[in-house]
Amino acid sequence: MAVALSTGLYATHTLVPPTPGPIAAAGNVGADLGLVILIGMVVSIPAALTGLWWAHRIGKDIKSEMDEGGMSYEELKNQFEKLPSTTKSFMPIVIPILLIALASIAKFTKYSGPGSNLIIFLGTPVNALMIGMLLSLSLLPKFDEETLMSWVGQGIKDSAIILLITGAGGSLGAVLSATPISDYIKTLAGGSISGGILKLRVLMHGTSRML
């Protein structure tokens, strides 16, 4: 289970928006987010299936103490209150992805029919993710102080470090793109490698001093 989950989560987390890393990378290079989603899925799905196949192959020969005397799925499920439906659970993830993909298709095909502006507006990454966030509120068992303050507050606390890291990475990317560092990187392929590395280190040192 750990191999299957880690392979699938790692592949999608590093390659498929709307996770923060791919969104930041696509924004830094100016790539179309819908196209990044499609290409990321093409790469991540085979990687996830490979991890699942390996987990099934190796897992047959591994015995766990949890397999003996553990609770069944129904017993574990009964410990919780009424769980949301599968459709409601997937909507906060699937709807933003579909909106972003539709907006990318509309831009690529230069669709100008009825509703084109609305599709592009809703498919803007910030708007699509906001819609997903609002849809996730439907998963709350009830709207009271405990869920709105405690649960949401804990979610913000857990995600804050990820948002800070992503924001710092985007800021650093903007700083580097505003400097002639790309010209020095190009010299690594054409000119003297040692000289290019030296110039690159000098430029990086000067950038860090300015920061």
From TrEMBL:
GO terms for molecular function: gluconate transmembrane transporter activity. GO terms for cellular component: plasma membrane. The chain crosses the membrane at residues 35-55, 89-106, 118-140, 160-178. Keywords: Membrane, Transmembrane, Transmembrane helix. InterPro entries: Glcn_transporter. This is GntP family permease. It comes from the Bacteria.
